[in-house]
Specification:
single chain, alpha/beta, Rossmann fold, nine-stranded mixed sheet, about 25% helix, about 25% strand
Length: about 375
């Protein structure tokens, strides 16, 4: 991915990318942010630029960080603050000096467009405050963000996004559905959030194809991905993340509707690690002895998924498929939009390289699934569906 020259100049810091809806009692994530910033007493700047109510969001985030050992403070950067203009804050020497003394920055959730608009000039160059944030990251600090704060981590982000199904049907346009992010994770990985619980995994694919990303990571709510300066991703918190690898994927350009063949989809559970450079997976310690052997699969049930975009259905399918004798599972996506007859078939299949890991040590079943094949093709349904 990166040349040696790029690696030599890469930031020394880390990222904590949170899928949104981070609970205040999720100590694993809050404490990890403080740890990445240097531990107890770490000075962390909270930027609530995305929030609809920045004062409330900023105060709540500072309280959560301080309860976990930080010395956090709010930078009043937002178009919603009545007494502070963003263009003044981003050039204010006092705030820039505070960032020079800090070892972490936290972006709250909300509307990611507000973050980018506040920290970039109209011509797209970095403001003095964004330069200071990058300097913090370069010298070893942590950049954390939840929801909108996660979206800005890649070089491309969703800007004015449509729901998942219209995104598949209509595609994405620069400056409309997508726009430039701040790119902390670098140019090679696309990031999305609120992923599994909202069925958003599929909306990543049109963006990745259009912008030529080979890797995509989408993290679920109340869950975080910690990305080290060695490109090691560790999943912590409540649930997990979806990983797409499009290295071997292709599309049929003669087909006017969205389609993709031979993509790879994986599910990384909490505690799992994945290296973005070597593409190697290290399952969590409780799963190391629980590698699933397809030759000894006991589950013979055949499942069909009528709404693959519903809450957590994609992971339910992946967990069932990797531990069953079934070689292929099908899911459909239809909706009552402008083209109700047009939908998509999602075909998941096991390959020789597919792997699964399982643990029930915590009292609940937990799975890791690596490298299922995913093919998506447009399909049409006969209308009316019923009389």
């Amino acid at each position: 991915m990166n040349t040696h020259a790029e690696e030599a100049s890469s930031p020394l810091g880390s990222l904590v990318i949170i899928g949104g809806a981070l609970r205040m009692d999720n100590a694993a994530v809050w404490q990890r942010i403080v740890q990445q910033a240097g531990g107890k007493g770490a000075k962390i700047a909270v930027i609530p630029a995305a929030a609809g109510n920045p004062e409330r969001a900023g105060a709540a985030t500072v309280a959560a960080l301080n309860q976990n050992g930080a010395q956090a403070f709010v930078v009043p950067l937002s178009v919603k603050y009545p007494h502070f203009k963003p263009q003044d804050i981003v050039n204010d020497a006092a705030w820039l000096d505070k960032l020079k003394q800090a070892s972490g920055v936290y972006f709250t959730g909300g509307d990611q467009a507000r973050i980018v608009q506040a920290l970039l000039t109209p011509d797209g160059s970095k403001t003095a405050m964004l330069e200071a944030i990058w300097a913090l990251y370069q010298r070893g600090g942590v950049i954390a963000g939840s929801s909108a704060g996660a979206a800005i981590m890649s070089t491309t982000m969703f800007y004015d996004a449509q729901p998942v199904l219209p995104t598949l049907k209509q595609g994405v346009t620069d400056g409309k559905e997508i726009a430039n992010g701040l790119g902390f994770i670098g140019p090679d990985v696309f990031i999305d959030q609120h992923l599994i619980i909202r069925g958003r995994f599929a909306r990543m694919l049109p963006v990745m194809l259009k912008k030529h990303y080979k890797l995509g990571l989408g993290v679920d709510e109340n869950t975080a991905m910690v990305v080290s300066n060695q490109a090691e991703v560790e999943v912590i918190g409540y649930k997990g993340a979806i990983l797409f690898d499009l290295t071997e994927a292709s599309t049929d350009s003669s087909q006017k509707n969205f389609n993709i063949s031979n993509a790879r989809i994986s599910y990384l559970d909490r505690g799992d690690r994945f290296n973005l450079r070597s593409k190697t997976l290290t399952p969590s310690a409780d799963k190391l002895q629980g590698k699933l052997d397809p030759a000894h699969a006991y589950n013979t049930d055949r499942h069909f998924y009528a709404d693959i975009l519903a809450n957590s259905v994609v992971t339910d399918l992946m967990f069932h498929l990797i531990g069953s004798k079934q070689e292929r599972s099908i899911g459909l996506a239809f909706g009552l939009d402008e083209q109700p007859e047009l939908g998509f078939e999602f075909s998941f299949s096991k390959l020789a390289e597919s792997q699964g890991y399982f643990s029930a040590s915590s009292g609940a079943e937990a799975y890791t699934v690596l490298k299922l094949r995913l093919d998506i093709r447009p399909v049409k349904m006969q209308l009316p569906l019923y009389k």
